[in-house]
Amino acid sequence: MGSVLPGSVREFRELARARLGEFPHSEVSDAGGVRRAAVLLCVVADEDGAPAVIVIKRAYRGRNAGQWGSPGGRLDEGETAEQAVLRELREELGLVATPADLLGRLDDFPASSGFVITPFVAALPEGAEPKPSPDEVHSVHMVRLDRLAADDVPHWVAPHEAVRQPELRAEAASVPEHRGLLQMRLAPNMTIHAPTGALLWQFRAVVLLGLPHTDARVAHFTQPDWTQH
């Protein structure tokens, strides 16, 4: 691994602010009545004090029922993406963040659901503890940054091998990135596809690994059929 990983939320905050400040994120224009959503890749200290990004499994009701995701949702009328992501964090997880906690943003992601997702990155002070809303969140998971950065997390498989958790089929041999489907295999029962998987992949590439921006684009990543609903 060519990058030294942050050992604390404070170190992560400094690293993320610097790397995101140099990252030329791409934006999708509002032309054509685009529907917009915003999500937050939110880093907190886990129970051992290690920096970890929050991943949620959505409640088994409504839109995206039971899917893996990041805190966030659609923009209300008249709301900016920044305002929306802070509101959604509070509503879904009971966590209060301010604009100063936002460290930067990644590329807009055109989801197959018809929404353009704007991802932000944040770090919250030590002691921040999620209190999930049962109406919106089934479970909350802390993914340590060293796990997210591990070499065995990203896998590329043939699109027909996209299956829901926890079952996984045999891996396709050497599927080229531009033709394959990404699986972020974070734990035995935690395999995440695009769009959330793509955002985690870009967060990993840009912030944790410090890859050149030309090697870290994700808008073209394939999405499974079930993410359209």
UniProtKB/TrEMBL annotation:
<dbReference type="GO" id="GO:0010945">
    <property type="term" value="F:coenzyme A diphosphatase activity"/>
</dbReference>
<comment type="similarity">
    <text>Belongs to the Nudix hydrolase family.</text>
</comment>
<dbReference type="InterPro" id="IPR000086">
    <property type="entry name" value="NUDIX_hydrolase_dom"/>
</dbReference>
<dbReference type="GO" id="GO:0046872">
    <property type="term" value="F:metal ion binding"/>
</dbReference>
<dbReference type="InterPro" id="IPR020084">
    <property type="entry name" value="NUDIX_hydrolase_CS"/>
</dbReference>
<dbReference type="InterPro" id="IPR015797">
    <property type="entry name" value="NUDIX_hydrolase-like_dom_sf"/>
</dbReference>
<protein>
    <submittedName>
        <fullName>Mutator protein MutT</fullName>
    </submittedName>
</protein>
<keyword id="KW-0378">Hydrolase</keyword>
<dbReference type="InterPro" id="IPR045121">
    <property type="entry name" value="CoAse"/>
</dbReference>
<dbReference type="Pfam" id="PF00293">
    <property type="entry name" value="NUDIX"/>
</dbReference>
<keyword id="KW-0460">Magnesium</keyword>
<keyword id="KW-0464">Manganese</keyword>
<feature type="domain" description="Nudix hydrolase">
    <location>
        <begin position="34"/>
        <end position="165"/>
    </location>
</feature>
<dbReference type="InterPro" id="IPR020476">
    <property type="entry name" value="Nudix_hydrolase"/>
</dbReference>
<keyword id="KW-0479">Metal-binding</keyword>
